[in-house]
Design brief:
- It is a single chain.
- By secondary structure, the chain is of the alpha+beta class.
- The protein has 21 helices and 13 strands.
- The strands form four sheets. The protein has a seven-stranded mixed β-sheet.
- The structure holds adenosine-5'-triphosphate and magnesium ion.
- Adenosine-5'-triphosphate binds near residues 34 and 169.
């Protein structure tokens, strides 16, 4: 327990200091708190500023307004107003402790207090439970600075009680460990495992939001291995993958470990700038496998239909987590097509590209090409996570990806909007009414062009339509 001054005051952003000054000019006490302090101590002061104060929210508001700062009453029931300085929002919250938790979710009530240390004690992890002031220095009652040094996520107080109060903290622990690359301290880890089943009480969209944070860290594979119980409780569909013996010469790992390896693989192939949709696709690409398992006569395991089943499961899971549709659709399309062969096609990746384009709902040719490159990274990662004899496929895929580049460069047609005719031409030539039939006909024209039956020229297409 100590007050030190490890943060260079020059790092403090002016808009945050303006809020502290306004509150203190009115005779209140105020501190920077939470994520900004944590990240500033790590030398990463990019985090937005949160402020806590002994002033009740009405008095905070009065002091801020008196200093010419705009204030919004964003959460007055738990003592929060939001100040806006230089266009930047700063949450200002009265010191408080949380009342009893009866639903593992939110406190039944909050009580306002006068000592910043009491406020820090209600916070989740030691690294998040520090306050700092440019002149008074750091308040760090739980040695968060030491845990930053040791690279540990440690619950404030008795871990099992803290997780019992609020089950969302389980996933927050995993998310912070992932984001910071920290380990979870031993007692906190034991409590995490024990409390994992209580995640069932947490709203699905909040689980989804934390999982997005875990994905964004690029360390979801670590979470799958080191925090398996929490990940399984967050996504119960994963449970059947654990220990699932694939009984196949292609595979050296159970489906769960294979998946963790694919998640590492997509990071590797994209140099760590992996898109969120590719991470989700890697995470869920084989989710349909356990349900599709059959054993052939020779005793070998098969998973016929697993991309289809997996795509349906993925769609359901992502909807449950309230993942936006523009992210979910490409993920579902990647899962659906991750195993589709290309070898036998005349123009190998072209049909796959067309189908990926159509299923993912991307808007432009360029976006479809970009998504297709991500599909290749998924497939490479998938190959690399198989038994050693079958990893060479990861390199063979380079050849197909070069064909994709050639397709892109040649300007060849793979979407109906690339055709030299439009729906109006179909209506005129075929004498049909506007409606779904028009789109279907355009798809047929496209298929004829892609298979080389007819050239993508207006006169040729009109003749083909009229035939
Ligand atoms: P991020 O970069 O994810 O925003 P953060 O530290 O700012 O990190 P927030 O979720 O914004 O995290 O919350 C701000 C602070 O509020 C945290 O640092 C922590 O002190 C406290 N806090 C947030 N959620 C909880 C919770 N569920 N239980 C206890 N304390 C919490
Ligand atoms: Mg925050």
């Amino acid at each position: 327990m100590g007050v030190t001054q490890a943060i260079d005051p020059a790092l403090a952003p002016a808009y945050g200091l303006a809020v502290l000054d306004a509150l203190e000019a009115a005779g209140h006490e105020a501190w920077f708190v939470g994520g900004w302090v944590r990240d500033a101590l790590r030398g990463a002061p990019a985090h937005d500023v949160d402020v806590c104060t002994d002033a009740p929210w009405e008095e905070s508001e009065r002091a801020l307004v008196a200093a010419g700062i705009t204030v919004h009453e964003t959460g007055t029931a738990h003592g929060t107003v939001t100040a806006v300085v230089e266009g930047k929002p700063v949450e200002v919250t009265t010191y408080r402790v949380d009342g009893a938790y009866t639903d593992h979710r939110r406190p039944d009530s909050v009580t306002f207090v006068t000592d910043v240390r009491e406020d820090l004690a209600r916070r989740d992890f030691t690294v998040n439970a520090m306050a700092w002031h440019p002149r008074r220095g750091l308040v760090d009652p739980f040695d968060g600075a030491g845990d930053l040094e040791r690279r540990l996520i440690r619950a404030v107080g008795v871990a099992s009680e803290r997780f019992e109060e609020d089950a969302l903290r389980l996933l927050r622990a995993v998310r912070f460990a992932c984001r910071l690359g920290f380990a979870v301290e031993e007692a906190t880890q034991e409590a995490l495992v024990e409390a994992a089943p209580t995640l069932g009480d947490v709203a699905q969209e909040r689980i989804g939001a934390e999982l997005r944070g875990i994905m964004a860290s690029g360390r979801a594979a670590w979470a799958m291995r080191a925090e398996r119980e929490v990940m399984l409780a967050a996504v119960p569909e994963l449970v059947a993958m654990v220990g699932f013996d694939q009984r196949s010469p292609y595979h050296a790992y159970d489906v769960y470990e294979h998946t963790a390896r694919v998640m590492e693989g997509v990071e590797y192939y994209t140099g760590g700038v992996t898109s969120e949709r590719l991470r989700w696709a890697a995470f869920l690409h084989d989710i349909g496998k356990p349900a599709c398992f059959t054993v052939g006569e020779n005793g070998q395991g098969h998973f016929y239909g697993h991309p289809h089943e997996g795509a349906q499961m993925t769609e359901k899971i992502l909807r449950r987590f309230a993942i936006p549709l523009e992210l979910a659709r490409p993920v579902v399309a990647l899962v659906r097509l991750h195993d589709r062969p290309m070898k036998s096609e005349k123009r190998p990746p072209l049909k796959l590209l067309a189908e990926l384009d159509r299923r993912s709902g991307v808007r432009t040719r360029g976006e479809a090409i970009a998504l297709m490159h991500e599909m290749f990274d998924l497939r490479r990662a998938d190959a690399l996570a198989k038994a050693p004899d079958y990893r060479g496929w990861a390199c063979e895929l380079d050849r197909y990806e070069r064909m994709l580049r050639a397709i892109d460069a040649s300007g060849v047609c793979w979407r109906t909007s690339d055709l030299a005719i439009s729906g109006g031409d179909v209506i005129a030539v075929r004498g049909i009414k506007p409606g779904p039939e028009v789109g279907k006909t355009l798809e047929q024209v496209l298929a004829a062009v892609m298979s080389g039956q007819v050239e993508n020229r207006r006169d040729a297409l009109l003749a083909w339509l009229a035939r």
